Amino acid sequence: MAAAAMRPSMGALGRISSSTPSPLRPLTQTASISTTAALLKRHKYREARVYRDNSKHRGESAIHRSGTRWRLSMSDEPLPRPVPRSKLPAIETDPDHGLWDFFANRQMISDPPSEIAKHGRSWTAEELRHKSWDDLHRLWWVCAKERNRIATANWERNKGEMGFGEAEAQKRDHTVRQTMRSIKHVLTERFYTWEDAVKLAENDPEVDLTGNGPAFIPSNYLEEGDVAATEGEQQAAETTGETVEKADPVTTATPEPATIPSSQQPTDAPR
Amino acid sequence: MQPTRALQALRFRRLRLTTKDVNKGFYKGTGTGSTGRHTKRGGYIIEWDKVRTYVCPPLDGFKLTPFVTETMPRTYGSYDGPLGPKDPAMYLARWKAENGLD
Description:
The structure holds 2 protein chains of 2 kinds.
Chain A: H1 2-19, H2 113-116, H3 125-128, H4 133-159, H5 166-202, H6 224-247, H7 265-268
Chain B: H1 9-14, E1 36-38, E2 44-46, H2 88-98
Antiparallel strand pairs in B: 1-2
GO molecular function, one term (chain A): structural constituent of ribosome
Region (Disordered) (chain A): 1-29, 56-90, 229-271
GO biological process, one term (chain A): mitochondrial translation
């Protein structure tokens, strides 16, 4: 009873003495008999054998399916098996996404060369002179998108090392660039002509450039005398206008579906 | 000693101009323009009013294509006078005939 009662207190004493060094006892033992770890260390003589195996994977063999030497910390759950692509759920894409415009065809990465070669000629500057600014602006972007499509198909064909369609794509791209060049030509020409026309209008009695009231006051119906005075000028204007109309009767200032051939319309319009 | 064939007078003019062909102060660039400014410490600050933004106009219902049918021959204008299509009088007359407003 007494020993059992003493034990916890003795244990507590030992714990206290081991964990917190007492100031009364010296920290290092220098006596010949001691139980400290430093003096109990195994003696190493010169030829002492090292029992540790330096080859960590000794005995492991993939051929004999030995497995690992030690148990790995892995769960026993079966590994997931790859699912065939046909059984995967379809990837949902936006059918109206703008990036679809980079492809001529949603089923094929590139049109066949026979399809690439199906295009007309480029616009001439004279045909574009009768288009409005908005039309030219939009036509420019249509051209840019067409060039994007050509470049995307080129890239895809290059990546797949298909080895065809390069010449046709180059020719198609060249045609588009010719059209874009004509657009630039016409817009530059129109700007310079406008600058000159503003200078000319400063001396024109019919044109009021001050910004007060209408800019153009036709004088030929105001008085009989004015009609006679400006008749020559007006006639010149009409004749030049007519020559413009006669030069290109098909293309007019407003875009007409007649300018587009009906055969080309279904293939190119929805792109 | 003579220059290589590629650099002989007539051919040289057809080569692309590089910074090594001219004196100091020649900035070749790429024709792109800047989008900001360099700082004293080597950084770069993008100034958004210098960054170009290209706005595509609405193309719904736009029927023109980059191509014109081959069945239609190429049309060229015939203009009287030395200025050709750049005649300001013709521009003014067309403005009066078509619009006369803006």
